[in-house]
Amino acid sequence: MNFQSEIEHPNEFLPSASVEARPNGARPPEEYIAFDAPWHAQLFAITVHLSETGRFSWTEWTKQFGEELKRSRSARPTDSSEAYYAAWLAALEKLLMRLNLSARHELDSLRESWVRAYVATPHGQPVKLDRGADSTEKV
Amino acid sequence: MPHDHCESDHPHNLLPSDPELRVKALETVLVKKGLVDPAALDAIIEIYENRVGPRNGARVVAKSWCDDEFRSELLEDASSAVGKLGYSGRQGAHLVAVENSPEVHNVVVCTLCSCYPWPLLGIPPAWYKSDPYRSRMVREPRKVLKEFGLEIESGRKVRVWDSTAEIRYLVVPMRPEGTENFTESDLADWVTRDSMVGTGLPKPPASQ
Predict the structure, then answer these.
(1) Which residues of B are less than 8 Å from A80 in CB distance?
(2) Which domain holds residue B151?
């Protein structure tokens, strides 16, 4: 495996063409992209926030996440941000259930409520949870 | 996708992916229970997208090249030294700075997950979080470094540091030759993210 060619940003080690265009050799800030997708950012923030407000320690989190990465690695290699954050999500759901902060049926039912809200919302309008909601939403 | 369930005259919004929906569900549950404050989430994202990143680490490294007192402090107690510059960890992790020398090249990995000095380097790049990097760096560091284009002479030791939730590492690369007259801020432009993880070296800004 070659880290320059096979991992997500194959061009990140190559000189950036835009550098040449800058006067006086001033360079653009090194490319830094924190998150590839909004849900990665959201998931990251939820986890950091829960830990900072004392719901679990960061050590407890890394232990759960490490176990999940190991599990997901045996299924398929975690070499994309997508797979990495999928493992992160599974780990956070499990940790919350273990700490009795949430339950599987609760998460599944909310997920379904969101699906209904998306289906019921005409294109171009903001999707709100109460759209398409019915009595199954119990939190 | 249950598009056929749509009874509206207008096309409905595209259904998000499964993980997106699950994250939405998670957030909704936690907000309703008062465990999560949406404004706090926005603030966290804003910090990690805009206020932290490798430029912070670059300033620390450049300062250590120019200021001997700071360098000693950084190597002695990095958390305290960078704290004085306003960079402090949110997870309470202890920061350790490891300095490269003609004898030793340092490189950082997190074999468990992806622990990383966030306040100084931001969110780690995809390769740092990947299985191959996490599993191979400990086993065959020279080979992996070579794949990053970094060949370490056989007489030079390669030291691999495994980060944890409690200890994060920052590599302090060697100051490049020929930069004696450079200012601290010019030098900071040479310090790349990879040089602070140990998978690269400082480079002139024009070649980055």
Answers:
(1) 126, 130
(2) 53-207
